[in-house]
Design goal:
It is an enzyme of class 6 (ligase). The protein has about 650 residues and is an alpha+beta fold. The chain contains 21 helices and 21 strands. Helix 1 (about 1-10) crosses helix 3 (about 40-55). Bound molecules: adenosine-5'-triphosphate.
């Protein structure tokens, strides 16, 4: 039934085949999605909108669908191109003021009441009397303007941004202002994860095919085609995470031809496979019982996905698919030395690790994190970096994801050359007993590593699973063995002014985890001990620029009362000795109990600038950690279902 709903919507200005998608149609879709909490219904609404986009696009026009999809996931380009929104609140308030003539103080007061600047913008617009109706906004127009905003840089860029936003807002009707402002803030908050967008896209393609087909489809056929389509789309996108590639191909060859047409290809980074934490060697053996597995050093560096194209160009991508070639010009320069002449194109999964120039010893991650992220010049580099290759995902025109790790590793070793201090294979041991693993673990720690990665070697359980935290990769860190458990990556959302000597800086911070399904930050703890004066000053300098008076609407505050709030942007890695239920904080509320979970005695480890706020630890992981701890203490609680 949800599929009929968009048809009923009165779309201003009409929307004929071959004309641009009205922005009003998209925002109406958003508002319908936001109005329901049912996941299937959300997807169905989006499906029907996308079906209309496909059917009403002119022949050979992939742009309408492409831009609609980008606006649905609130991005403007693939991750690796990195055109980002995330405009600060004060700039937006200024633009809302300018386009509606309301005073900034009134807007701020409204924001305090509503907690959502999008809503405030919409209400401000709708309470305004307009003499004439503005020209309707279209998806391509909004998309282009958002892109111009994101790309404007330089000293007059603030004024330019405000001016574009003001003009956009002036043309907004109905729901449009709400979603434009939220898009600009960087979060749509309609509870529509990217996974569901992929499913909706696939379903729309299948439905378009059904409508075109001359035969009648049975209900069973339709259901199985929808499911099959969604699976194809998810698999294809995980190999080639670029709508710029996938959407034109989808429109050209249809869902069935997609697998053949869209394969992993050098130049488009895929989301890396991740590991599950384990607490004891026994757990590893339980999981991998009777299967062959390998233990590798878990190097303490930065993930580096290295791509070499057929034309010779090389790029290094981060864990987040950011292009890091400018941070690691030395890696790019070193690379040709370690590739055999027969190795024409590849995608290599590796860890970039700092090493001491004279002793050749591994150095901790902190050494690398001192590097600038851009425009590093080879001659200025102090710390040398060595690449430790551990997986090969593509070689000479062929994706290898569906080969066993054993085969991939063999190809890796065959096609690359060890250059000590520049390129090495991750040290590994295919040992099988507790003693062997224990010895290798101790050795890894002595050599300056964090511990071990234990990986399934054979059968389909050892395929490379992009973007998954897989049970076929286990991490065994020395910290876990000491009983502290895995670290968490948390977003700094608030600050507490310091006391005594520390009055000029923040003395403590409010941290939050991130719920990707609900698109919200959930507070988890206050952290304030263990910072040096210098560290506090550095944190202050970074966070000062992100200050906002009110918590953003997507922060689930609970009872936390920091002195000042921040735009959620900075991610810290934190260790904790203990997790406890809390009446104050909101992390994982409803997962274990109605109360949230908080960290006791949290300890700051490092800034994770390779992670964005959306990559922070999620509530499920926190609930899992809490339950493990409860179990270890002998009083396990059953997990409640979510929602
Ligand atoms: P962590 O804080 O442990 O790095 P994470 O979420 O970034 O957490 P995990 O899946 O927990 O990633 O751990 C895997 C990370 O360890 C990889 O992203 C990679 O950067 C690093 N690593 C070091 N050595 C290896 C190895 N031999 N194989 C795979 N990953 C390795």
């Amino acid at each position: 039934a949800a599929l009929d709903r968009i048809e009923d919507v009165d779309i201003p200005g009409g929307w004929k085949v071959g004309t641009p998608v009205p922005y009003a149609a998209l925002t109406k879709t958003f508002s319908l999605i936001e109005a329901t909490t049912k996941r299937l219904e959300k997807t169905a609404i989006l499906t029907s909108f996308l079906l209309l986009v496909i059917q009403r696009s002119a022949k050979g026009d992939p742009k309408s669908l492409l831009q609609s999809i980008y606006l649905c996931i609130n991005r403007l380009s693939p991750d690796y191109i990195g055109i980002e929104l995330g405009i600060g609140e004060s700039l937006l308030i200024k633009a809302i003021g300018e386009s509606t003539g309301r005073s900034l103080n009134v807007i701020k007061a409204d924001l305090k009441k509503e907690g959502d600047l999008g809503l405030v913008a919409m209400n401000s617009k709708n309470s305004q009397k307009t003499l004439f109706k503005p020209k309707p906004l279209t998806v391509p127009f909004v998309f282009q303007n958002l892109k111009d905003i994101a790309l404007s840089a330089g000293h007059s860029s603030q004024a330019k941004k405000v001016s574009i936003i003001t003009k956009l807002l002036a043309a907004c009707q109905d729901f449009e202002a709400k979603y434009i402002v939220r898009s600009l803030e960087g979060k749509l908050r309609i509870g529509n994860a990217e996974r569901s967008v992929l499913v909706a896209l696939a379903q729309a393609a299948v439905l378009a095919e059904k409508e075109k087909s001359s035969k009648k489809w049975s209900q069973d056929r339709l259901a199985s085609r929808l499911e099959e389509g969604a699976n194809i789309m998810k698999a294809v996108y995980s190999e080639l995470p670029s709508y710029d590639e996938v959407i034109p191909a989808l429109l050209e060859v249809g869902i069935d031809g997609l697998r053949e047409k869209c394969k992993l290809s050098p130049g488009v980074p895929l989301k890396p496979m991740l590991a599950k934490p384990t607490k004891a060697i026994g757990e590893v053996l339980d999981r991998f019982e009777n299967k062959r597995f390998t233990c590798e050093y878990k190097y303490d560096g930065e993930r580096a996905q290295v791509h070499k194209l057929e034309n010779g160009s090389v790029a290094v991508f981060s864990r987040n698919s950011e292009d890091m070639s400018k941070k690691y010009p030395d890696l790019v320069e070193q690379l040709p030395n370690c590739i055999k002449a027969t190795t024409k194109s590849f995608v290599l999964d590796a860890e970039a690790v700092a090493i001491d120039r004279t002793t050749g010893k591994l150095m901790p991650f902190q050494e690398l994190s001192r590097r600038k992220r851009k425009d590093v010049k080879v001659e200025d580099i102090q710390v040398r970096v060595c690449l430790f290759g551990f997986d090969l995902l593509y070689l000479n025109g062929e994706p290898l994801l569906q080969k066993s790790l054993e085969e991939r590793r063999e190809l890796l070793r065959e096609h690359f050359i060890i250059v000590p201090g520049e390129f090495e294979f991750a040290k590994s041991s295919d040992g099988e007993t507790t003693d062997e693993i224990q010895t290798f673990l101790e050795e890894s720690v002595k050599d300056g590593c964090e511990g071990l990665m234990v990986k399934m070697l054979e059968t389909d359980a050892s395929f490379y699973e992009p973007s998954r935290r897989s049970v076929n990769w286990l991490k065994l860190k020395k910290d876990y063995l000491a009983g502290v458990g895995d670290s968490l990556d948390l977003v700094v959302v608030g600050g507490y002014y310091g006391k005594g000597k520390r009055t000029n800086v923040y003395g403590a911070f409010l941290l939050a985890c991130y719920d990707a399904d609900a698109e919200e930050y959930q507070t988890i703890c206050k952290i304030g001990t263990g910072f040096s004066e210098e560290a506090l000053q550095n944190h202050y300098d970074t966070l000062k620029e992100l200050e906002i008076e009110q918590p953003r609407g997507d922060i689930k505050v609970g009872g936390a009362k920091p002195d000042i709030w921040f735009e959620p942007k900075i991610v810290w890695e934190v260790l904790t000795a203990d997790l406890s239920l809390s009446p104050v904080y909101t992390a994982a509320q409803g997962l274990v109990e109605d109360r949230g979970i908080s960290l006791r005695f949290p300890r700051f480890i490092r800034i994770r600038d390779d992670k964005s706020a959306d990559d922070a630890t999620g509530p499920e992981q926190i609930a899992e950690m809490y339950e493990r701890q409860a179990l270890a203490q002998g009083g396990g609680k059953k997990k409640k279902g979510k929602g």
